[in-house]
Amino acid sequence: MKKSTWKPIANLVFIVAVGWGGYQVSEIGKNKTDKQQQQIDYCQLSTQVCEQNNASVTLATDVINPMQNTEINVQWPDLPAETDHLVLTLEGHEMMMGVYQLQLSRTASGEFSGDLTLPFCTSDEMTWQGNIKPLSDQEEITPINVSIRMVK
Fold first, then answer.
1. How many Å apart are CA 60 and CA 52, to the nearest integer?
2. pTM
3. C-beta separation of 87 from 106 below 8 A
4. Closest-CA residue to 143 (of 96, 79, 100, 84)
5. Contact by Cβ (8 Å): 104, 79
6. 152 and 120 in contact (C-beta within 8 Å)?
7. What is the 3-state secondary structure (H, E, C) of the chain?
8. How far is Cα 105 from Cα 120, in angstroms, rounded to an integer?
9. Alpha-carbon gap, residue 53 to 61, rounded angstroms
10. How far is the C-alpha of 149 from the C-alpha of 123, rounded, in Å?
């Protein structure tokens, strides 16, 4: 009986092909995610007015410190009059800190405000990124993408 030498070679070729295909698929997904993140235009929040989606956002201070209140104000004239609350959602960019959410309430002047208190982290500096959108999650309204730099 003659031994078949082509089966081990076919198995090796198959394994290499499957591995290469898996690598290509993972790289395509990775590059797509990187490109999506690069396309997001974040509004860097500070005492200077930042405008996005016909809305204006400001903070009471330029430097955000952990565990210290800072007022955030949003003027968004395009929102329906019945919109009473917005939600600010943030996640740590450099390190996983969970999801921070803050409800902003409409004031008598028609703007939205709330006291932002970011949690303590081990880094000296950290960037928080996220968005502001109506609490009622109205799909036709594009959220405001925001970024906040926190310094100890």
1. 18
2. 0.71
3. no
4. 79
5. no
6. no
7. CCCCCHHHHHHHHHHHHHHHHHHHHHHHHHHHHHHHHHHCCCEECCCCCEEECCEEEEECCCCECCCCCEEEEEECCCCCCCCCEEEEEEEECCCCCCEEEEEEEECCCCCEEEEECCCCCCCCEEEEEEEEEECCCCCCCCCEEEEEEEEC
8. 25
9. 23
10. 12
Token pair for 73? 């104000």
Six-digit token string for 29: 């997904």
What pLDDT band is residue 124 in, cutting at 50, 70 and 90? Answer: confident
Asked whether residue 7 carries a pLDDT value surpassing 90, the answer given is no
Determine contact, residues 128/70, Cβ cutoff 8 Å: no
